[in-house]
Amino acid sequence: MTKIYPQNRDKRKKRKTWIFIFAIFALLGATNGNVRNFTVKAIVNVTNPVFKFSRFAAEKKDSIVFLFRNKQSLDEELNYLRERNIELENEIILLESAKKENEELKILLSRPEKKSYILGSIISRPPQSPYDMIVVDAGSDNGVKNGMRAVVYGGVLIGHAVEVFPGASKIKLVSYPGEETNLIMENGKISAIGLGLGGGNIEVKIPSSVKINSGDKINTEGTSHYLLGTADKIEADALNPFQKIIFRTPVNLNELQKIGLEK
């Protein structure tokens, strides 16, 4: 047996009441014009808010869909612009690098003696390679031979080739520990031997009687000499017949891109 709760009984009574009222209006509307008009207006007034809300909801839905699609389009455009910006930044870096290399080559090839060089790009440098050693991408296939002098900026000697392979060469720098280089103190007009200390530093000992100032040029010996560096630190002792000069190669290896190997 189905049990009917009072709440359900009330709902059924209300539903029956509304059906009865609608039936009365429908019956009267069929026979009386005024009642029919009143009934139509009542129905319109009741349903009009529903239709307005439906239209409003449809418009809002279209707006939301449009905004969503528009946002997607903007996101895609922003991603494209970001990627394009990265490409342009890389192009600028490449152009600046090419400009710098071009300037280095111009200086290298502008020596009055018109020497011939084999050009090579540095492919390994400290700390990737042993300190005071660099590797270039020019080797025996390009005509490089052991002992060739490595020159930069048209007039600075940085070392010489010590190991040559078909497509690459190792360059030992003049600052390599224990490396000896014949040199001349330009202002003192005295020859000496430079001794590599490592880390780009070179030491030279000359008589204390020779006047040397900080900044004096130190060149290789020979008619067509190269610059080795400038006097940086001078250590003199009245009790010692020799003074010690410490200098560095005037080149920043981290910025250097190309070298010339003198034929």
Q: State the total count of DSSP E strands.
A: 12
CATH architecture classification of the largest domain: Beta Barrel
The biggest beta sheet is recorded as: 6 strands, antiparallel, barrel
Number of helices: 2
**Highest-level CATH class of the largest domain:** Mainly Beta
Structural class category: alpha+beta
Cα distance spanning the termini = 116 Å
Assembly type: single chain
CATH superfamily membership of the largest domain: Rod shape-determining protein MreC, domain 1
Shape: elongated
Q: Taking strands numbered 1, 2, ... along the chain, how are they ordered across the largest sheet? A: 1-2-5-4-3-12
Beta-sheet strand percentage? 25-35%
Uncertain regions: pLDDT < 50 for 5+ in a row? 1-5
| Mean pLDDT over the full residue set | 77
Rounded Rg? 46 Å
Topology as a string of helices (H) and strands (E): HHEEEEEEEEEEEE
Helix content: 25-40%
Number of domains as seen in the coordinates: 2
Here the CATH topology of the largest domain equals: Thrombin, subunit H
Protein name: Cell shape-determining protein MreC
Family: Belongs to the MreC family.
Pfam families: MreC
Organism: Candidatus Terrybacteria bacterium RIFCSPHIGHO2_02_41_19
What does this structure look like?
The protein folds into 2 domains: 1-108; 115-263, Thrombin, subunit H (Beta Barrel), CATH 2.40.10. The chain contains 2 helices and 12 strands, in the order ααββββββββββββ. It has helices at 6-31, 33-108, and strands spanning 117-124, 133-136, 149-152, 156-164, 169-173, 180-185, 190-198, 201-207, 217-220, 227-235, 242-248, 258-262. β10 (227-235) and β11 form a beta hairpin. The termini are far apart.
